[in-house]
Amino acid sequence: MGLFHQPARAPKGQTSAASPAPRRRRTFSRILRFVVASIAFGVIGAGLLLGSAFSYYSWAIPNPLALRQKGKATMTVRVLARDGSVLAERGAAAPYVPIDLLPRHLIQAVLAIEDRRFFSHWGVDPMGLGRAIVANLRAGRVVQGGSTLTQQLAKNIIVNSDR
Fold first, then answer.
1. Is 148:123 a contact under the CB 8 Å cutoff?
2. 18-38, pLDDT tens digit by residue?
3. Contact 112, 120 (CB under 8 A)
4. Is 125:115 a contact under the CB 8 Å cutoff?
5. Which SS3 state, helix, strand or coil, does residue 87 take?
6. Phi/psi class of residue 93: alpha, beta or left (left: φ > 0; alpha: ψ in -120 to 50)?
7. Which of 22, 137, 140, 150 is the most buried (most CB within 10 A)?
8. Packing angle of the helix pair 149-158, 104-114 (nearest 10 deg)
9. Is the pTM of this model over 0.90?
């Protein structure tokens, strides 16, 4: 054994137990760890963002039952007789009726008129929006809307009726 002794090499294609893993394996391992860590941080970040948004909007959106103020002026249509007596009144504030007490055919009629795909979307109807955009572009002006019942309710609760 001389001063410049070199250890014996393993045959080509094999590694000896004492030699380190090939560089490709270490690089792949680092990339894999980076990808897994990035996905984990992304999932945690998305969860925190969604949780924060849910908390904020749960606090910020008013309770629909609290919006029914008794002293609030409502638009009322009165049908009067010739002598001035009231025949009918429409639009006046009515007592709250739970949805369970409404007739099923009334609910189905409202959904058929206002939002046929109510049960197949999460509040925004992409097909309805696309249809409205195409119709409006063809007409060159706004002729159709693509809002859903959910969007109309949110607008009526949060935004006032001023344009």
1. yes
2. 555 556 667 888 889 999 999
3. no
4. yes
5. strand
6. beta
7. 150
8. 90
9. no
Distance in angstroms (rounded) separating the CA atoms of residues 114 and 93: 22
> Shortest CA distance to 124 belongs to which of 107, 153, 146?
146
**Both tokens assigned to 72:** 């609030």
146/1 Cα distance (integer angstroms)? 87
For residue 27, the Cα-to-chain-centroid distance in whole angstroms is: 40
**CA 147 to the chain's CA centroid:** 14
- Contact between 157 and 63 under an 8 Å Cβ cutoff? The reply is no
| Total Cβ atoms within 10 A of residue 131 | 13
78 phi/psi in degrees, rounded to 5 = -115, 130
Residue 149, φ and ψ in degrees, nearest 5: -60, -40
3-class DSSP state of 94: coil
DSSP state of 52: H
What residue type is 2 in one-letter code? G
* Mean pLDDT within 94-108: 86
